[in-house]
Design goal:
mainly alpha
Length: 121
């Protein structure tokens, strides 16, 4: 047994709870407007500072504000990535359920071949 096989065996299949995943996604989307508003405000501050920069002190202030922007953006990006994984888990579950329940072939083919369902984006 190779290392890859060992690691593959050790990895437990995570059971997908669509209701839990959808609730978490809804919560993320409810909170997103305030995150986006905060990011937008920080981007505008940095943009204004950049346009009016004349001294090294102005540059330092711009860097400090951009540092705040980076931190907020990082957390937002992490949340987006986690939500994306939730959506992918639900999609994989639905594909599996379509096959198990012998859904009409037209639907199975659509899900199997559509780039969105296969995450080719």
């Amino acid at each position: 047994m190779g290392l890859f096989d060992f690691l593959k065996k050790k990895r437990k299949k995570q059971r997908v709870n669509p209701e839990k995943e959808l609730k978490a996604t809804i919560d993320f989307l409810k909170n997103s407007p305030s995150d986006i508003k905060q990011l937008s405000k920080l981007v505008n501050v940095v943009d204004t500072l950049r346009k009016s920069r004349q001294t090294n002190n102005d540059l330092k202030r711009e860097i400090k504000e951009f540092d705040k922007l980076l931190k907020v953006y990082r957390f937002f990006q992490d949340d987006v990535d986690i939500t994306g994984e939730r959506i992918k888990r639900i999609a994989r579950l639905l594909k599996k359920e379509a096959e198990e329940n012998k859904l009409e072939q037209e639907w199975q083919n659509y899900i199997k071949n559509d780039e969105n369902w296969n995450f080719d984006w």
